[in-house]
Design goal:
The complex is a heterodimer.
Chain A: H1 2-16, H2 19-41, H3 52-83, H4 85-93, H5 95-99, H6 106-140, H7 147-169, H8 174-200, H9 204-216, H10 219-230, H11 233-241, H12 259-281
Helix pairs in contact in A: 1-6, 2-6, 3-6, 3-7, 3-8, 3-10, 4-8, 6-7, 7-8, 7-10, 7-12, 8-9
Chain B: H1 6-15, E1 22-31, E2 34-44, E3 49-53, H2 60-67, E4 75-80, E5 83-84, H3 88-91, E6 94-97, H4 109-120, H5 124-137, H6 153-165, E7 171-175, H7 183-199, E8 202-207, H8 210-216, E9 219-224, E10 227-233, H9 234-238, E11 241-249, H10 253-262, E12 264-268, E13 271-278, H11 282-291, E14 295-302, H12 306-317, E15 327-328
Parallel strand pairs in B: 3-8, 3-9, 6-7, 7-8
Antiparallel strand pairs in B: 1-2, 1-4, 2-15, 4-5, 9-10, 11-13, 11-14, 12-13
Helix pairs in contact in B: 4-5, 5-6
The chains are: A mainly alpha, B alpha/beta.
Chain lengths: ~280, ~325
């Protein structure tokens, strides 16, 4: 089946080019560092209100969120880096000239590439997040309330960037497509914060900016889903006690993404991928 | 209306004469205002080695890319192996060596061939034999386990040929197959093309190397500025008329008369040159001259070379034009 052949080839390429090895090594290094960090939490003097347990939970949850943010950013960056050349580089080098004259559809090639890269993103994102959660559990006895859902949201964010980068790759050079995807990713994140600020200050116009950017590119909206599922009850109580101004905190969310938003995100990925198929089918090689 | 069974229709189709390997009618390709192909019409019969000749920028590669479905035409129609150009099922029976190409340099040569076997839909049980045969045909058996990244350009070209020949295609399109090869490699490719012809494979040879085309092709199309300006067998293209150089003694008036009647005569210091004599008429003319008492020392028939004809055609198509690149509409 051509789709699976291309998907396997895509994964094979990253393995041969030692990308997988590099990721494994760097992830192990980060894991060791965070293990040490979590261990140090236990030595922190917890003063003021609340029990020692609550203090540890909130500190560990905060560190996990920061780590998740870093990994989600790395995942988005990685998705843009590996997906932007996925089509354009093979066009420029002439690899596609002999491949696409085989009895296969261009959409099969596109789907195979997407599937291969999506597998890498899911495995890397899932494995690193799970590893951090396990380290936290072992080091300080804390596990986020919904670890699987959090991982799903983080990976979904990576898949959104991946799909966008694949679309750009059908028409733009790797460097141009990659940069545009990353700028849009950053703009969506900023749009999300802007929307939160609008909500905090009861400014509907500014709040709408966040809503619109989260619809145009659902990365920040999905990231909020990840945060929500990483927040322990203790943190919810503390943050909600701080009132509406806490909405402006980019590391706090008081409600999960609504079902229509999740459906929109799925439709968004399908729509952008459809656009990529349309664009690639019409590309002269 | 009479209804016909599937079997009857299939029998009718089978009774039809085989469709040509390639047939195009007014194929046009425009890139913005640039016209790369300007109404390409030609027919390539099956089982022949067809040369597609033209200067750089004449639209040769564009034409090949249209025929294999990599590029979409702006106008006109084309059929390859009886199916509209780009047809997925027909591509199963086509082998293609692109002009400027690369294979995944992180794969081994054997893995590249294996990948193309999969993409071509060659059954798994046949793949090992197909790969071994392709490697053997292009002389890469010893390097099968080496990464493509370590190959020279010539070896990559050989690998490209091997990839194009996988699965025993009915039509092989070779776009400048010898451009990166040394003389030995060129010779090997010519032999390979002859082997393909012996197997009944149609070969479409896109080249600007006249001697190569002259040596292996049955039929040639000369393309310039996106149009076919001449098409025919090698003899038709070169012209059946022969240029005859004669060295004669004791040339009588009657003999001179006979020479004048045979063709356009040039009397030169060291002999005679006769133009426009049919190749078949040469023995009769010699017998006639001997009969008229002439001493015939030498008769050297010389056909027009493809290069002469090629330059003549291009000169006629656009006298004095230096730039043959695609033109603006």
């Amino acid at each position: 089946m051509p789709v699976l052949t291309i998907a396997r080839l895509t994964i094979h390429e990253t393995a041969r080019k030692k990308l997988l090895l590099a990721l494994v090594i760097i992830t192990i290094v980060v894991a060791l560092l965070t293990g040490w960090l979590f261990h140090k939490i236990l030595e922190l003097p917890c003063t003021g209100e609340g029990s020692r347990q609550m203090c540890t939970t909130i500190t560990a949850a905060t560190i996990l969120m920061l780590l998740s943010f870093m990994f989600s950013f790395v995942l988005a960056l990685g998705a843009a880096f590996i997906a932007s050349p996925s089509i354009s580089a093979d066009i420029e080098s002439g690899i596609f000239l002999s491949m696409l004259t085989r009895p296969i559809r261009r959409s099969d090639v596109l789907l195979g590439k997407w599937l291969g890269l999506a597998t890498l993103i899911a495995v890397y994102g899932g494995a690193t997040a799970a590893m951090e959660f396990i380290i936290s559990r072992i080091a300080v006895g804390y596990m986020p309330p919904h670890p699987v859902l959090a991982i799903v949201y983080i990976v979904a964010e990576g898949l959104v960037v991946l799909t966008l980068s694949v679309l750009f790759s059908t028409r733009l050079s790797a460097i141009t497509g990659g940069i545009i995807a990353l700028v849009l990713f950053g703009a969506a994140w900023l749009g999300g914060i802007t929307g939160s600020v609008g909500a905090a200050f009861h400014n509907q116009a500014i709040e709408n900016v966040g809503t619109i950017t989260s619809l145009i590119l659902p990365t920040d909206g999905l990231w909020r889903g990840a945060i929500y599922n990483l927040e322990p009850v203790a943190m919810m109580v503390v943050q909600q006690g701080a009132g509406r101004a806490e909405s402006a905190n980019p590391f706090f969310v008081n409600a999960p993404p609504a079902t229509p938003y999740i459906l929109w995100s799925i439709l968004w990925v399908a729509g952008i991928f459809g656009l990529a198929i349309w664009s690639f089918a019409r590309r002269d090689l | 209306m009479q209804t016909r069974s599937i079997e009857e229709t299939a029998a009718d189709v089978a009774a039809l004469p085989a469709s040509p390997a390639i047939h195009s009618q007014g194929l046009v390709k425009r890139y913005g205002s640039i016209v790369a192909l300007d109404g390409l019409s030609m027919t390539v019969p099956r089982g022949e080695v067809f040369g597609f000749l033209g200067p750089n920028g004449a639209g040769k590669t564009t034409a090949v890319k249209l025929l294999v479905g990599l590029t979409r035409p702006s106008g006109g129609e084309g059929w390859v192996l009886g199916a509209p150009i780009g047809d997925r099922e027909a591509r199963r029976r086509i082998g293609y060596l692109p002009e400027l190409f690369r294979y995944q340099d992180w794969l081994e040569a054997r893995e590249v061939l294996s990948l193309h076997c999969e993409l071509a839909g060659i059954p798994r049980r046949r793949r090992a034999a197909e790969i071994a045969e392709a490697l053997d045909l292009v002389g890469l058996t010893d390097r099968a386990g080496d990464r493509v990244g370590t190959f020279s350009k010539g070896m990559q070209q050989r690998l490209g040929l091997g990839v194009a020949l996988l699965g025993g295609p009915e039509l092989v399109l070779l776009d400048e197959p010898t451009s990166a090869l040394d003389p030995v490699g060129r010779h090997d490719v010519r032999e390979l093309i002859r082997t393909l012809r012996a197997r009944g494979t149609t070969v479409f040879l896109n080249s600007h190397m006249l001697t190569e085309v002259e040596q292996v092709c049955d039929r040639v199309a000369v393309v310039d500025r996106g149009q076919v300006i001449a098409l025919g067998t090698m003899d038709e293209l070169r012209g059946a008329d022969t240029l005859l150089r004669l060295r004669l003694g004791r040339v009588s008036e009657a003999a001179l008369e006979a020479l004048h009647r045979a063709g356009a005569l040039d009397v030169e210091a060291d002999g005679y040159t006769l133009r426009g004599v049919g190749r078949d008429a040469v023995p009769g003319l010699v017998a006639q001259l001997v009969g008229l008492g002439c001493e015939v020392y030498a008769v050297e028939p010389r056909g027009q070379s493809l290069e002469d004809r090629f330059l003549e055609l291009l000169g006629g198509n656009d006298a004095g034009a230096d730039n043959r690149a695609p033109h603006h509409s």
